[in-house]
């Protein structure tokens, strides 16, 4: 194997610090993609992530944590109609894989629109 791994441990550091999924402007970063150069903190952050990370990638893995006080089984949520995304999902061998359609605003949708399997 060869290549470059781009790892971003925490994208929404402000949310983590505040123990909330929301940014200080009450926007959910994962509903702001692909973002804009101008606008709210969420949309500007999403734009930077798309420009500096996603656009330079061939594949993506978007990890999420469970909500506070809510049990969460390891699972994959992916658009499995894409063969490469399905192959990537299967490589993790988790107990639950969900074929999830792509909603407006999340990173997965923005990645799919530029042809990036995630």
Question: Mind explaining what this structure looks like?
Answer:
The mean pLDDT is 90. A two-stranded parallel ribbon has the order 1-2. The longest helix is centred in the middle third of the chain and has 12 residues, at 41-52. Helices cover 27% and strands 7% of the residues. The protein has helices at 13-17, 41-52, 83-90, 107-113; strands at 75-78, 96-99. The protein is of the alpha+beta class and 118 residues long. The chain has one domain. The chain has four helices and two strands. Strand 1, helix 3 and strand 2 (96-99) form a beta-alpha-beta unit.
Q: Can you tell me the residue ranges where pLDDT is under 50 for at least 5 consecutive residues? A: none
Spatial ordering of strands, largest sheet: 1-2
Domain module tally: 1
**Which percent band covers the strand fraction?**
5-15%
Structural class: alpha+beta
* Major sheet: 2 strands, parallel
Helical residue percent?
25-40%
Counting DSSP E segments of at least 2 residues, the number of strands comes to 2
Please compute the radius of gyration using only Cα atoms.
Answer: 15 Å
Number of helical regions = 4
First-to-last CA distance: 19 Å
- The overall pLDDT, averaged over residues, is 90
Provide the succession of SSEs.
Answer: HHEHEH
Based on Cα principal axes, name the global outline. Answer: globular
Keywords:
single chain, 118 residues, alpha+beta, two-stranded parallel ribbon, 4 helices, 7% strand
Brief characterization of the structure:
The protein is α+β, with helices and mostly antiparallel strands. Helix content is 27%, strand content 7%.
């Amino acid at each position: 194997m060869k290549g470059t791994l781009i790892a971003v441990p925490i994208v929404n550091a402000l949310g983590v610090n505040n123990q909330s999924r929301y940014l200080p402007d009450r926007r959910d970063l994962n509903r702001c993609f692909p973002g804009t150069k101008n606008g709210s903190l969420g949309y500007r952050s999403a734009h930077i992530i798309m420009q500096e990370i996603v656009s330079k990638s061939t594949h993506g893995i978007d990890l999420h944590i469970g909500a506070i006080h809510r049990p969460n089984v390891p699972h994959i949520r992916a658009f499995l109609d894409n063969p490469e995304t399905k192959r990537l999902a299967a490589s993790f061998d988790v107990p639950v894989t969900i074929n999830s359609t792509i909603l407006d605003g999340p990173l997965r949708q923005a990645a799919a629109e530029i042809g990036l399997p995630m």
